[in-house]
Amino acid sequence: MTTATSDLNRNYTALKNDLLQSGFLANVTRASSPVPVIDFQAGCNLLNWPGKNAGGSLGISYAAISEDFFKTAGMKMAEGREFAGTPNDTLHVILNEAAVGRLQLKTPVGQMLTTELSKEPVRIIGVVKNAIIGSPFSTIIPALFVYKPDIAGTVIYRLKPDVNVHDAIDKLAAIFNKYNPAYPYDYFFADAAYDSNFKQAQLVGKLAAVFAALTILISCLGLFGLAAYKPIRTAR
Questions:
Q1: Contact assessment for residue 132 and residue 48, using Cβ atoms and an 8 Å cutoff
Q2: Which helix (H) or strand (E) holds 105?
Q3: Is-contact 81 71, C-beta < 8 A?
Q4: For residues 16 and 13, what is the distance between their CA atoms, to the nearest angstrom?
Q5: Are strands 92-96 and 143-147 parallel, antiparallel or unpaired?
Q6: Within 10 Å of residue 229's Cβ, how many Cβ atoms?
Q7: Each residue's pLDDT tens digit, 51-79
Q8: Where are the alpha helices (DSSP H) in the chain?
Q9: pTM summary value
Q10: What span, in angstroms and rounded, lies between the C-alpha atoms of 79 and 73?
C-alpha cells in the first residue's frame, strides 16, 4: 500500500495500467484509508431506508473506495457485486453484514437508501462479509462503502502468489517514481499491519495477566500476614 498524492491521483489510470502490466500484481485499487486500519471515523446520516420508522435518522460510518477494492483487500462479497468503475456507481452503495443487520434488511440488494452524502437515492448493489478492521477484538462496525475514487487517499495493490518480493518492490518503485517524482516510493504490507495489531493485543493480554498475578500474590501475602499474626497479651 502507498499513500496517494495529487500526482498519483491525477495519473491513476496510467499508473494502474503500468502496475498491472508489470506482471507482479493481481489487483490495484484506491481507498480513503489503508487496510487493515480502514478509517470509519467519518460518518453520515441515513435519512431513509426500507422499514424506517417515521421521523429521525440513523448515523453510520462510511469509507470511500474505487472498483476492485474488496477483491484487492481480500474481503468476500456475501451477495451482489462490487463497484464496476463506471459513473453510475456514484448512485450505488455497498453495505457490510453488520449494517444490514443494523437496518434489519432481509433482502438488501436492490433496495434504495437516502443519505446526506447525496441528494438522490442510492441503490444497494452488494453486501460484503464482515471483516476485522483495526483491533482484532473490536466490534464490527456497521459500514457503508461509497464510490468516490477521487478522495481515496491510499493506493492498495495485491502481489501475485509466489512472486519475488524484492524484485516486485524494485519494479513498483520505478513505476511509482515515474508518476510521482516529487516523493520517494513508500509502502507497507497489510499482513505486517495485521501481525502488529495481534502482537499488541497479545502484549496487552500478557501485561494484564502479570498484573493480575501480582495482585493475587500481594493479596496472599496479606492473608498470610494476618494468619501469622498473634496478639500479645499483657499480664495485669
A1: no
A2: none
A3: no
A4: 5
A5: antiparallel
A6: 7
A7: 887 766 788 888 889 999 999 988 899 99
A8: 6-10, 12-21, 69-73, 97-103, 165-179, 190-228
A9: 0.74
A10: 17
> Distance between CA 193 and CA 211 in Å, rounded?
27
For residue 82 the three cell numbers come to 462490487
Question: In 3-state terms, what secondary structure has residue 181?
Answer: coil
Query: DSSP labels for 114-149?
Result: EETT-SS-EEEEEEEPP---SSTTSPPPPEEEEE-G
Find cell 491510499 and name the residue: 154
Q: What is the pLDDT of residues 10-53, one digit of tens each?
A: 888 999 999 999 999 999 998 887 765 555 556 778 888 888 87
Q: Take residue 124 and report the three cell numbers written for it.
A: 444497494
Exposure class string for 25-50: b at 16+ Cβ within 10 A, else e: bebbbbbbbbbbebbbeeebebbebe
Question: Distance of CA 127 to CAs 48, 99, 157, 188, 202, Å?
Answer: 18, 9, 22, 28, 31
CB atoms within 10 A of CB 79: 15
- C-alpha cell of residue 170: 524494485
Q: Grid coordinates in use for 176? A: 511509482
**3-class DSSP state for residue 43?**
strand
CB atoms within 10 A of CB 9: 18
